[in-house]
Amino acid sequence: MLQKRNSGIVLKSREEVESMRVAGHLAGEVLQMIREFVVPGVSTGELDDICHRHITEVQGGIPAPLNYKGFPKSICTSVNHVVCHGIPGEQTLKKGDVVNIDITVIKDGWHGDTSKMFQLGETSVRAKRICDIAYESMVRGIEMVKPGVRLGDIGHTIQTYAEGHGCSVVREYCGHGIGQVFHEDPQVLHYGRPGTGEVLVPGMVFTIEPMVNLGKRDTRLMPDGWTVITRDRSLSAQWEHTIAVTETGLDVLTRLPGDTL
Length: 261
What we know:
Elements: E1 5-6, E2 9-10, H1 14-34, H2 44-58, E3 62-63, E4 76-79, E5 82-84, E6 98-107, E7 110-119, H3 125-143, H4 151-164, E8 168-169, E9 175-177, E10 184-188, E11 205-208, E12 211-213, E13 219-221, E14 228-230, E15 236-238, E16 241-245, E17 250-252
Helix pairs in contact: 1-2, 3-4
């Protein structure tokens, strides 16, 4: 089926959304699989290797980040004050760390993109707080999704919640449309004004993935060209799901059966 286009946005048919659900569930399964390995003493490189082998050998999929615009690994691992795009390597996780693991799986040409926070052992009150606030920010954004809502309404909801709890929302990085292409229109900002931005229509598929900092929102890109950290080195947290707009509301394509958001 030819895909309709709305202001440069690629709308997906019901059949295409189902294909994306397959990829989305595979990405969610990787996060479920890796949980038991996220323990003190493991290196982020070891986590990458485990995920890579699971995606390619067990799922028969392709890890989308690998070689994407030069990214050298199959997953992103963003630890403590790393906001996003952390490159797995020799860093060893320790008790009290928090880490975002970001998974994108390609299956039969379609992408599924999701991430979540993992807490190692007994973490600090501040670490638990930023993980919880980032999670609730994502949930509130997702719950806004339905035809007729504007992207600015979603961004405003996320921003209002995070800032209302004394945290800040990163501005330089955002959610995105997704399908047979990893990143496509629209850009989904996690801040904004109500009544602005693209109007949601059935067939739109995009990620909601707010990056929330415990301190100020300012970030810095490291010399590797990928790793983004908080400029004040405050803790940062992020959660992500891939969402489809339906005729009556929304469908979370990366949520596994029986799971909550």
